[in-house]
Here is the input.
Amino acid sequence: MTTQLGGSLIERCDLASATALLAADPDTNRVGWLSQGPARLARSRLQAARGKPVAALTVLHEYGAQERRAQVTNLAMTPWRSQAASLHLARTAAASCWQPRYAEH
Here is the structure.
């Protein structure tokens, strides 16, 4: 429930409340990855919303490493790969100063 509420706060641009709600759980190892995985994904979204794509990618890569350790075989289970690809694309576009051009009609 906390993860969904955090995602809702991010969508409402209430990043301060989302940060407080999604603070890292010190009991991550005890609770387990299946419980903490969705929270990591939400923390990545929070970092991206703050304009910190590198931090967001770091969280996503940590999530991927945890997924490999848990031997998750269903790649459709979570969208972390597509989120990482979008962040990589955004970083590449920003680094090359590429700006999309839209035709005005």
About this structure: The first helix runs from residue 2 to 11. Confidence is low (pLDDT under 50) at residues 97-105. Residues 55 and 83 are 13 Å apart (CA to CA). The helical segments are 2-11, 15-21, 28-31, 33-49, 53-69, 80-95.
